[in-house]
Amino acid sequence: MNRILGGVALTVMTTGAALPGPVRIAPVAATEPQGKPVPLHIGGRGIVEGDGLRRQWPGSYIEAGFADDGADLRLGPGDVRLHILVDGKPVATLVKPKPGLYRLTGLGKGAHRLRVEVASESQAGPTSLGGVFARHPLPVRSRARRIEFIGDSHTVGYGNTADGQACTPDQVWDTTDTSQGIAGQVSRRYDADYRVNAISGRGVVRNYNGFAADPLPIAYRYTLFDHDHGANDRGWQPQLYVVALGTNDFSTPLHPDEAWADRAALRRDYETRYAAFLRDLHRANPRAHLFVWATDRAEGEVAAEAGKVVERLRGEGIANIGFATLDGLSFNGCNSHPTVADDRRIADAVAGYVDAHPSLWRR
């Protein structure tokens, strides 16, 4: 897929009857878009501002329908990498595009569905997708199947498209692609809407190497990471939660100034808090299934501790919960993270649980 670096014009030859090509996307000097605001279907948490969306959690996307051979897309500030898809076909990737108006042309006559999805992680600050505009807007329906993915860098897709483990911070950013990670792969398999509530480096009670920041269960309470906007999940009722937390709690040694006297105290705190977090998800959405997975990192400590939490919840009567340990992954992505191929193995494990419980979709 071709890239637009900094908003330079791009012509893309496409294949398939729906997109005759060439498709062109380019920034335009105009400040006012052509056409009317198109109603957006939004994937992921965010704050609706005017005709667009301000967001920070990874894996966000917007979709819009129209009956024109093109549309305008407004982008706001913030470094981001965006995949542009039309009728399910990738046509371009925008890399750190400048704020402004972009025009998509050459789609051919008929109805089209535009999807703009965030591939990069945005821990440094939120970014804005400023809206889609067309002469003949069409409604876009949400999907009947809904999945929420909760986790750390493994769920984000940190450095998953890299050629090797050694990466600079810029290379990590450029090779992180949530859409090619677990969430994207599983959701495409089941044609599901999804949310990705994951942050690299965060744990349940302890972040990577003990660094100070909200652990994931605390950050989960907010729409953005600044604590100014509490999460508003009304209307979002996933049938499945896919959760993986613990790598950052256990992958590094404890330091003398941390809150836990020893590893045993850390394990107890982790088990208590992880169980409470999963219990809260179940309480808020009791008909949904929970699928918890863990890798065999930290000499198996991550999987052993996560497995104990799942057994505790089963003992409390929560039946719709599964667990899997993923061993033998290559971890050949940036800084020893899973690759896209590893993500495929994890996605297969999730799919194994889903296919064994087909009734989970019947809501």
What key attributes describe this structure?
Jelly Rolls; 8 helices; 23% helix; seven-stranded mixed sheet; globular; alpha+beta; Rossmann fold; 2 domains; eight-stranded antiparallel sheet; 363 residues
Outline the structure in words:
The strands form 3 sheets. Strands 2, 3, 4, 6, 7, 9, 12 and 14 form an 8-stranded antiparallel β-sheet that branches. Strands 1, 5, 8, 10, 11, 13 and 15 form a 7-stranded mixed β-sheet that branches. The protein is α+β, with helices and mostly antiparallel strands. The chain is built from 8 helices and 20 strands. The radius of gyration is 21 Å and the shape is globular. The chain folds into 2 domains: 3-138, Galactose-binding domain-like (Jelly Rolls, Sandwich); 145-361, Rossmann fold (3-Layer(aba) Sandwich). Mean pLDDT is 93; it is low at 7-17. Helix 3 (182-190) crosses helix 8 (340-356) and helix 6 (263-284) packs across helix 7. The two termini are 37 Å apart. Strand 19 (289-295), helix 7 (301-315) and strand 20 (321-326) form a beta-alpha-beta unit.
Write the layout of secondary structure elements.
Blueprint: E1 3-5, E2 10-12, E3 23-28, E4 36-37, E5 41-43, E6 47-49, E7 52-55, E8 61-66, E9 71-75, E10 81-86, E11 89-95, E12 100-105, E13 112-118, E14 127-134, E15 137-138, E16 145-151, H1 153-156, H2 169-175, H3 182-190, E17 192-198, H4 216-219, E18 240-244, H5 247-250, H6 263-284, E19 289-295, H7 301-315, E20 321-326, H8 340-356
Parallel strand pairs: 1-11, 16-17, 16-18, 18-19, 19-20
Antiparallel strand pairs: 2-3, 3-12, 4-14, 5-8, 6-7, 7-14, 8-13, 8-15, 9-12, 9-14, 10-11, 10-13
Helix pairs in contact: 3-8, 6-7
Organism: Sphingomonas abaci
Domain SGNH hydrolase-type esterase: 149-300
Pfam families: CE2_N, Lipase_GDSL_2
